[in-house]
C-alpha cells in the first residue's frame, strides 16, 4: 500500500505535469501566496516546500486558503464542461425523432458550429452526424424484428425515405433489412480455427469484414460461441485464402507491435460502437482505464457501461479491450481470461 509520502509525490507529479486528468481528485495550496488551485492550473509552478495538498475545496478553505482566480477550482474545469456539453448533445440527438442539424446542436451548447463540431469529435471520436446515424441504425436494429412492416421501422427510426435507408442498409445492418429482420437468415460467415500461444483462436468474417475473433482452450466451444452469436447465419469453413487471414491474426497475437489492420464488421449499439472505436485508439504498449474511455466518449459517468461494452466485444485483439485496466493500475476482468490479458499486455510492453 502506498504511504502518505508516496501519494503526495504522485500528486506533485500531476501538478508539475499540469495534468487535467487529476482535476477534481485533489487540490494544492501555496503557503507563500495563500491560494489553492486545481492540478492543471496554468500559473507558474510554486516551490515544492511551499505546497500542501487537500482533498476538497472546503478542506483547502478550512486551512485558510482562498480560491485561485486563474484556474477557478470551485467551478467545473474546461474538460468537465466539454464532457457535460457533449453528453447533453448526445442525449438531444437520441431523443429527437429527426437528427438535429449541426447549427441547432451548436446553438443549444452556446458555441459556434465549428467549435462545437471540433469538441464533439474530440470527445466521442465521431462527428455529430455519424453519432446520429449510429443511433438511428441502432433504433432500426431494435425495431425490425418486431415491427409490423419494414417501412414502419425505417420511418420510426428517423429515416426520411426507404430509398435512403436501403442505400445504407449494408453499412447499417451488415445485410438487407429483410434478412436482418429474419435474424440474419442466409448470411454467410466464413470461419477457421488456429492455434497460438494463448490457446485456440477462431476468426470469422462476413463479406464486409471480420465479425469475430474468439480465444479459448476448446475449439468446439469457440464454434458454439459463434453459432450462439449468429443463430441463423450459414457458417462455412474457411478456405486456404481465409486461413491466411487467421495466420495474420495469430502473428499479431505473438508479436503485437507488427500491427493489425483489418476490415471489421462491427454490430452493436451506438454506445458500444463509440466505446469500441475509442478502444482502437489505444496504442500497443499503452493502457487506459474504464474512466478514461468514458471521458473520451463524452460520458464521464458511464464507467460501468463502458466495462459492459468491453465485455460484449466479440473481436479480441483487433478491438483491444485487453488494454483497459482499473484506475489503480490493476488488471480487471477479461472475456477470454485474465491470464491471456496479462500475456497480451506483457508482449506489448516496450522492451
Give the secondary structure arrangement, pairings included:
Blueprint: H1 4-17, E1 27-30, E2 35-37, E3 51-54, H2 57-62, E4 66-67, H3 78-95, H4 102-109, H5 113-124, H6 128-143, H7 150-156, H8 162-173, H9 177-181, E5 188-196, E6 199-205, E7 210-216, H10 219-229, E8 234-237, H11 240-254, H12 270-279, E9 288-289, H13 290-296, H14 303-311, E10 324-325, H15 338-348
Parallel strand pairs: 2-4, 5-8, 9-10
Antiparallel strand pairs: 1-2, 1-3, 5-6, 6-7
Helix pairs in contact: 4-5, 6-12, 13-14
Summary tags:
single chain, 351 residues, alpha/beta, four-stranded mixed β-sheet, 10 strands, globular
Order of strands in the sheet with the most strands? 3-1-2-4
Span between N and C termini? 27 Å
**H/E element string?**
HEEEHEHHHHHHHEEEHEHHEHHEH
Uncertain ranges: 160-172
Strand content: 5-15%
The overall strand count is: 10
Q: Given the helix and strand composition, which structural class is it?
A: alpha/beta
In short:
This protein has about 350 residues and is α/β, with parallel strands linked by helices.
Amino acid at each position: 500500500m502506498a504511504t502518505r509520502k508516496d501519494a503526495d509525490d504522485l500528486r506533485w507529479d500531476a501538478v508539475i505535469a499540469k495534468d487535467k486528468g487529476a482535476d477534481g481528485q485533489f487540490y494544492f495550496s501555496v503557503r507563500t501566496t495563500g491560494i489553492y488551485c486545481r492540478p492543471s492550473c496554468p500559473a507558474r509552478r510554486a516551490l515544492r516546500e511551499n505546497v500542501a495538498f487537500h482533498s476538497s475545496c472546503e478542506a483547502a478553505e478550512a486551512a485558510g486558503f482562498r480560491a485561485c482566480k486563474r484556474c477557478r477550482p470551485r467551478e467545473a474545469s474546461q474538460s468537465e464542461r466539454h464532457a457535460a456539453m457533449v453528453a447533453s448533445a448526445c442525449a438531444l440527438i437520441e431523443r429527437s425523432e429527426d437528427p438535429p442539424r449541426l447549427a441547432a446542436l451548436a446553438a443549444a451548447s452556446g458555441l459556434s458550429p465549428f467549435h462545437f463540431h471540433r469538441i464533439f469529435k474530440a470527445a466521442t471520436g465521431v462527428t455529430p452526424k455519424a453519432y446520429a446515424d449510429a443511433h438511428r441504425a441502432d433504433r432500426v436494429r431494435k425495431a425490425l424484428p418486431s415491427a409490423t412492416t419494414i417501412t414502419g421501422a425505417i420511418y420510426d427510426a428517423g429515416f426520411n425515405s426507404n430509398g435512403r435507408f436501403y442505400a445504407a442498409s449494408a453499412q447499417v445492418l451488415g445485410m438487407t433489412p429483410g434478412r436482418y429482420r429474419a435474424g440474419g437468415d442466409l448470411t454467410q460467415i466464413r470461419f477457421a480455427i488456429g492455434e497460438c500461444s494463448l490457446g485456440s483462436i477462431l476468426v470469422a468474417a462476413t463479406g464486409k469484414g471480420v465479425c469475430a475473433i474468439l480465444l479459448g482452450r476448446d475449439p468446439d466451444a469457440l464454434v458454439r460461441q459463434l453459432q450462439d452469436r449468429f443463430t441463423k447465419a450459414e457458417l462455412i469453413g474457411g478456405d486456404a485464402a481465409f486461413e491466411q487471414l487467421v495466420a495474420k491474426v495469430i502473428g499479431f497475437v505473438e508479436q503485437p507491435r507488427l500491427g493489425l489492420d483489418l476490415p471489421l464488421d462491427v454490430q452493436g449499439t451506438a454506445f458500444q460502437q463509440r466505446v469500441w472505436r475509442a478502444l482502437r485508439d489505444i496504442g500497443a504498449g499503452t493502457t487506459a482505464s474504464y474512466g478514461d474511455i468514458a471521458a473520451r466518449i463524452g460520458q464521464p459517468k458511464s464507467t460501468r457501461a463502458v466495462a459492459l461494452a468491453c465485455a460484449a466485444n466479440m473481436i479480441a485483439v483487433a478491438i483491444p479491450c485487453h488494454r483497459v485496466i482499473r484506475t489503480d493500475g490493476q488488471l480487471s476482468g477479461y472475456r477470454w481470461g485474465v491470464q491471456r490479458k496479462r500475456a497480451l499486455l506483457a508482449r506489448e510492453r516496450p522492451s
